[in-house]
Batch of 2 targets.
Target 1
Amino acid sequence: MTHIDRNRRQFIQNMGWGALTAALPGFAFGESRRINSTPNPGFKADVEIALTARMADVPIRSGAQTHVFKYFAKLLNGPPATLKELPGYLGPILNFQQGQKVRIFFYNELPEPCVTHWHGMHVPQMMDGHPMYAIVQGEHYVYEFEVRNPAGTCWYHSHTHELTAPQVYQGLAGLITIADEAERKLDLPNGEYDIPLVIQDRTFSNGNQLRYVLNMHQRMTGFLGDTILANGLENSEIRVKTRAYRVRILNGSNSRIYKLAWDDGTPVTVIGTDGALLQKPESLPYVMLAPAERVELWIDFSGRRVGSELELQSLPYHITSNMGRGMGGGGMRHGMGRMGMMADTLSQEGKIAIFRFHVAEQVGDSPKLPAELVPMTRLTAQNASNPEKIIPIAIGMRHMTFQLNGRTFDMDNYLELEKIPVNSVQRMRIFHESHGMGRRGGRGGGMMGMMMSLPHPIHLHGQQFQILSRKQNDPNSGYDSVKDGFINNGWKDTVLVMPGEEVEIIKPFKDYTGLFLYHCHNLEHEDMGMMRNFYVS
Ligand code: C2O
Ligand code: CU
Ligand code: CU
């Protein structure tokens, strides 16, 4: 692990409990540290799970086992299909139904604080895994929520203050699926024909241990590994039949962005985005998938020869950022990984193999792709509670740190502009701050300004949003190599904002009051403080 990480763990271990609670932000408010440690007797759970985060050694690649952090789960009550174990280091898949009441007893058995967030799910503040609710080793937290999301693919992961990146990197993540009535009517491929695919990049030592080291560039771009894992394993492939499949893809990487395509040029058929199925399938040459984004694909192997293979790849793309130019001579372009990828998130040289489908069995029949999927109301600016008001999410940088709306993360703080009335619908504009703003930090606004433009996957907790518009202000950004891979018609909780780009979204804030995070889901950016709260009241 990184030196930072090791020092931190050491640091925490060396302190007594009292010192520890005082040192953890969010623990500072004494009795207002409301750790929910007892189940609410009034909450009649349909599903109860014991979820434990602890250290383990698991087989990821051939040879020695890898030391990881891993979620282990046990079903205490509810449908047996609720948990599906995966080989490798990911937590089990949690399969929920809309309307279910879920109780999760989360046990932290790691020698560092931890908290778990249900990414993409619409749950109350205290159940959302805000870093202020981190628990230390030996403690537990009781999450209780009703599944209000429609059918789709979410995920869970650690959200610990300044430790999210290393904890997720070491394994603290898992997939969540949600099923509902509308989806059942569609009769989409299910069971073995519904394939989860979590994509992550990692770097291993010679002894097969995870290495988390940020070089100079990666301090800005985020961690980039040289080995692709699919569902927590290296070189994974799956045997399929000559029929249609549903593939649920999550980019669970810390910072790597993928440009996903089939190796034989078959168009990519998308049936779902982050938070739900689409209204109708969309066909694209490739799909861009930034950290935390999900996409559901339809792929039909009918008519393919038994013995043939289809590979999901990440295609090359080139993003020219001001940062690269600012550092002179394409300084960001160095550091070829051993798979031939460039060690920066801005560009990918060459193709990267992600996952192989091996056609192994001939079958007679296949379901057909439905022309219509689920009903969806397209929101427009007119649906906003106050169409004139646009809440800013300004991406900026000061003192070599990325910020949102001019600030870094401050546990339970929010600005006036971060206050949102509950049960409202808001227009929001995500954009890169103008370069002049860098000067406020007092350290050479020019260079600061130059370094502001990186791609940032911006994520908002709470309900899913829709994209109203995208505007590219930098004609030289290389946008052409990625622009045909965005899906702007679905429900989203994370949107990739490219250098020079401005994205307008519309988002409902229904049901729940309190603090809800918004942040960059490049996990290194998040840990450096590129995160803020909205206060919904
Ligand atoms: Cu996936 Cu706030 O996170
Ligand atoms: Cu989230
Ligand atoms: Cu970022």
Target 2
Amino acid sequence: MNRENLIKRAISARENSYSPYSHFRVGAALLCADGEIYEGCNIENRAYGPTNCAERTAFFKAVSEGKREFSAIAIVGGEDELTWCYPCGVCRQVMAEFCAPDTFEVICARSPEEYKIFTLRDLLPNMF
Ligand code: THU
């Protein structure tokens, strides 16, 4: 797996972030088991509640196209500069629906060279 490339795709996806309320721009790139990559960004809403995170955007795009097996997701976020951005609880639960807890990699990045890797089980122990 080329993690640097996946992070670059997440950085590119972040360009489309629609975040006029929080100004926190997030991008994600989801690597499918077949090698295809789906990008996602956060999409906010004036009613706040309907906001969709970048990670779920990527998952829902992929699942709606028929994908069911996933290897990794890269996540980047921040207002202007990139800061460490970790997936929210709802996104972790969506990952749990589709991903193998001990092998699926969650790659949280501040640049293509600076990143932390977690398994899904690290982030969501004792999952439902
Ligand atoms: N957000 C994401 O898209 N992914 C995360 O991992 C953390 C939070 C979004 C939701 C909201 O649009 C903004 O960041 C601030 O919470």
